[in-house]
Amino acid sequence: MPRSATVPNLPPSIAPARPEAEKRTLGQYFTPPELADFIAGFFTRNLRNWRLIDAGAGAGALTLATVKHALEQRPRPTTFHVSAYEIDPVAIVLLRQTLDHCAALCAAEGVVFSFDLRTEDFIEHTLGSMEQNLFAPEAKTFNAAIANPPYRKLSTGSPQHRRLCAAGIEASNLYSAFLSLVSRLLDAEGELAAIVPRSFCNGPYFRAFRRDFLSRMAFRRLHVFGSRNTVFSAEAV
Ligand SMILES: C[S@@+](CC[C@H](N)C(=O)[O-])C[C@H]1O[C@@H](n2cnc3c(N)ncnc32)[C@H](O)[C@@H]1O
Questions:
Q1: Distance between Cα 112 and ligand 1 center (Å)
Q2: CA 6 – ligand 1 centroid, Å
Q3: Burial of residue 110 (number of CB atoms within 10 Å: 0-12, 13-18, 19+)
Q4: What is the pLDDT of residues 52-110, one digit of tens each?
């Protein structure tokens, strides 16, 4: 049977319309589908059992692109599991629809799909799990991660900044906090494909992040976009 007969379509838009001020507070800028496909193409491994984390998943564009990427593998994967974190109730409604769509895509190809939709703060939850298990603080649960994390400055001394510092994570922006935590959740060969501002590359402001991140991760491929206004043309990034 052709795939289109069994897989329901996604709603025409998977980006919720929110006022700019609310978007800024949430650090919310959605990845257009073509860019999501491009980023998912950074994964290099043919995994049998995908264990993906999408922290700050929005409406799920990056998860969907990774599922489509995995379904192009030969042989096809056996299972695909995703843990998706999102705090915005408006985005969560769309994320749920996207996850259902991923399940249908996988079912049509005989791949067992499961998801853990975590409607909670990724930073709080991950720090909490690390604190609960002091003897194994880095739970290496995932073999792949994809992210376009929220961007917002973290002021020194704010409760979130203090909690991260207490866990040994010096983060000046939400995006570096997300990447530091994600890097702790990946297994040894785990791959991370992420869209981030280039600010982390230079200067003392992100030095602690670079040291921490590069102590467990290595760059395999970098793509520098000419202008974020072009790439995220639908959003006032
Ligand atoms: C830059 S947007 C990207 C969304 C999606 N990854 C994409 O590429 O389209 C970041 C998302 O992270 C969510 N977010 C912000 N703070 C969060 C937190 N502490 N925990 C989980 N999600 C968060 C925002 O609501 C937003 O949807």
A1: 26
A2: 30
A3: exposed
A4: 999 999 999 999 999 999 999 999 999 999 999 999 999 999 999 999 999 999 999 99
Q: Which two tokens stand for residue 136?
A: 């194994």
123 Cβ below 6 A of ligand 1 = yes
CA separation for the pair 71, 100 (Å, rounded): 16
Q: Using only the alpha carbons of the chain, give its radius of gyration.
A: 17
Q: How many CA atoms lie within 13 A of 51 on its CB side?
A: 10
**From CA 104, how far away is CA 111, in angstroms rounded?**
10
39 lines ligand 1 (CB under 6 A): no
Nearest residue (by CA) to ligand 1, atom 10, is 150
Burial group, residue 171, by CB count within 10 angstroms (0-12, 13-18, 19+): buried
Report whether residue 57 contacts ligand 1, using a CB cutoff of 6 Å: yes
Residue in 38, 61, 32 with CA at minimum distance from that of residue 230: 32
